[in-house]
Amino acid sequence: MITITPLRVGTIYCDKGKTLTQGVDNGKMMYIPSVSWLIKTPTEKILVDTGMPDTETSHSKHYPGSYQLPGERIEQVLKIQGVLPEEITKVIFTHLHWDHCQNGLLLPKAKFYVQKKELDFARNPAGTYFRSYDHPSIGLTPEFETYPLEVVDGDWEVLPGITAMLTPGHSPGHQIVVVETAPGTKYVIAGDAVLCYDNLLPSTQQDYVLPGRHKDSAETQQVIEKIITIAGATHRILPGHDERVFRKKEYS
Ligand SMILES: [Zn+2]
Fold it and tell me: Is it true that domain 3-247 has CATH number 3.40.50.10490?
């Protein structure tokens, strides 16, 4: 059996309409979690994303009012789960936005998997998208450049029962992770392809209330449909920034 545990690695303060739900609740400020996912298989312990940086960097360089409490850094939350940082063999980055890929060097035995399109774009973001990454133009050195990166291109099998799929839209090289926790039961760790459960609701503009931040709206919509089809039920979709994912300590 395979299990999935959501780990809270910080809190982001943001405008709901601008960030989470395009055209809905503009100007409504709210706190949302930064989440890392621990996948335990019979042979390996894997993470999907490592979360946001410390309070000072998050607040001053990204979203003012965001914070990481003492004890919320990735290796600290792992220890609370009874997992040593050196037990993590693989880290899969859904994408390289600032709040998904920090503190990887605290996981000394891990290899870090990123899509080629995402790495290319993070190094040279078009338009104003540099704000979403640790880009030198906002005075930041991307920490992911120091990780032992494994660059993948397209869908790939992580381990039997765990597949990562290229799902561009929110960002150019975004990937989701599909986990078959038991035969016939598939969970989708959606990253920011689904930021919150509200993105699965019908919209007057499109089929769904799209995430507020995305690179390509047509692709974003197609990916939401794909995720719903794979999961088969919305409760097996695990969004990137929804408090409700913590309703369960473990998914299996
Ligand atoms: Zn993102």
Answer: no
